[in-house]
Amino acid sequence: MKILYVCTEIYPLLKTGGLADVGAALPAALRAAGCHVRLLLPAFPSIAAGVRADAPALRLPVEGGPDVLRTLQPPPMLVRGHVIESGQPVYLLDAPALYQREGGPYQDAAGQDWSDNAARFALLGWAAAALGQGADPHWQPDVVHAHDWHAGLAPLYQKLLAGAGRITPSVFTVHNLAYQGLFAASSCAELGVPESLFTINGAEYHGQLSFMKAGLQFADAITTVSPRYAQEIMTPEQGCGLDGVLRDRRDRVSGILNGVDYELWNPATDPLLNAHFDGKRMSGKARVKRALQRLLGLEERPDALLFAAVTRLSEQKGLHLVPAMLPELIDRGGQLVILGSGDAGIEAALREALACHPGQAALRTGYNEDLAHRIIAAADVLLVPSRYEPCGLTQLYGLRYGTLPLVHAVGGLADTVTDCSLEALDEGRASGFAFHEFSANGLLGAMRRAFALRRRPSDWSAVQRRAMQQRFDWQEPAQAYRALYQTLLALTAAPLRF
Ligand code: ADP
After folding, report:
1. Distance from CA of residue 365 to its chain's centroid?
2. What is the pLDDT of residues 276-328, one digit of tens each?
């Protein structure tokens, strides 16, 4: 079975969040499950630098597609090659005027969305659709699998390109429903989105063009990255205005939990750590903790309960609740480390709060993969107080490193962490701390449970051992995606409904 996997990030070449971790690990797991996977990625500079071309580039069909196909010089091309480090086959969408620039993949260095994002990501959708409908004479996928709003126009363009002909089935995976790719209605003309598809039952969203809604409306199957989030996004509270669309298509929606690449995230072998440990020999964790305390200027107290967060600083992640809990955390003898990048306002508030506790709290900003591993390995408790969380990966990394996750019980966090209630402790199911009320009080309650458990060393060790034994391998999710692809192949792709 041949799968075209369409996304914008791949670890380690380009990463702004979990999408990149999944973009590296899921295709590899699908390959192990017997699928032939090719990635389609924009040729952002760091991605292009990690890919070697191995066949002549292809021209894209122009008729009906976005205007940039006609106006850009040189014209956009599809470079066939492979990721040098992993050997993963890829198509690079090469359009230097759109993708080769300083700054981030979606925003400039000042944090503003690129003003031509509609054209940049419409072209990605168009290239996916073209490959899906046979643009490469040597390789046509059986399924087009598009990820997040950036690739949301792929299923729409596929239907346009196919006309009355056969449409290659498509899967659209939502990694985060809050980022929707909304653009002015006037962009439809330049993107080749016909009026007949810019309707309430198509890609129109309150007068704007929504790439996310296009993906949800036109894909043959919709998945998201945890079973709980799949349910949540069908409710008005969590549906980001698209819950009605999702409810209408509920028979096409499913949740498949993300996995972890345990080659990269393993405390017994992690090359980024100064010492190693596993469930049977935990002394290395204390050495990693001491090294981190020293590195970050914290008092080297082995018994200080060390809380940590490694996160984007966005409203979603709930870090604005942390300043209110910090005084009590410190009073109780705890310490706090935060590694985060993103929103300047959240960063300033954290900086101010943590600065009141020199030697006990430290903030590091920016994106730092090495430090992320060291913090997750060193801490005792990993904070993930997200307002909503499609899956979440850091809590899974925390479990593996015996760093008990403290989470808001939503989405993938609820699916993967079991609170240390007395029943769960008694039944040997507890793996962390979960709170239900999204407030500073909710967070404080869970924090107090963490201190309470720490005063019961044998219970703490039992929960830690259990956490470290849990496995969220990619094998099972890859089988679930494969089964979904097979179901789609068995059906005739839905005809154009407009
Ligand atoms: P999201 O994709 O919403 O950001 P996830 O938990 O799914 O959240 O994935 C986040 C990924 O990004 C994890 O691999 C995490 O370790 C990493 N990460 C987040 N912030 C940073 C940072 N400042 N430095 C290094 N890695 C980070």
Report:
1. 20
2. 999 999 999 999 999 999 999 999 999 999 999 999 999 999 999 999 999 99
Please provide the CATH number assigned to the domain covering 283-469.
3.40.50.2000
CB 54 within 8 A of CB 81: yes
Do residues 451 and 2 make contact, with C-beta atoms less than 8 angstroms apart?
A: no
Count other C-beta atoms under 10 Å from residue 115's C-beta. Answer: 9
Q: Find out whether the beta carbon of 309 lies less than 6 Å from any atom of ligand 1.
A: no
Separation of 74 CA from ligand 1 center, angstroms?
Answer: 35
In tens, the pLDDT along 185-201 reads 999 999 999 999 999 99
Q: Is any atom of ligand 1 closer than 6 Å to the C-beta of 238?
A: no
Q: What is the C-alpha separation between 346 and 327, in angstroms, rounded?
A: 18
Give the span between the Cα atoms of 190 and 246, in whole angstroms: 28
- Provide the whole-model pTM: 0.96
Domain boundary assignment for the chain: 2-259+475-489, 283-469
Angstrom distances, CA of residue 11 to CA of 2, 22, 47, 370, 403: 22, 8, 9, 14, 23
Atom of ligand 1 nearest to the CA of 384: 6
- Let me know: does 149 contact 181? Beta carbons within 8 Å: yes
Regarding the beta carbon of 21 and ligand 1, being less than 6 Å apart is answered yes
Confirm whether 2-259+475-489 and 283-469 share one CATH topology: yes
Q: Measured in angstroms, how far is the CA atom of residue 375 from the centroid of ligand 1?
A: 12
By percentage, how much of the chain surpasses pLDDT 70? 99
Nearest atom of ligand 1 to the alpha carbon of 175: 2
Strands of 84-203, DSSP E: 89-94, 143-147, 170-174, 182-184
* C-beta 293 within 6 A of ligand 1: no
Architecture category of domain 2-259+475-489 in CATH: 3-Layer(aba) Sandwich (3.40)
* Ligand 1 binding pocket includes 393 (Cβ within 6 Å): yes
95: which residues sit within 8 A by CB, 6+ positions away? 42, 43, 68, 72, 76, 77, 123
The C-alpha atoms of residue 384 and residue 374 are separated, in whole angstroms, by: 17
- 341 Cβ inside 6 Å of ligand 1: yes
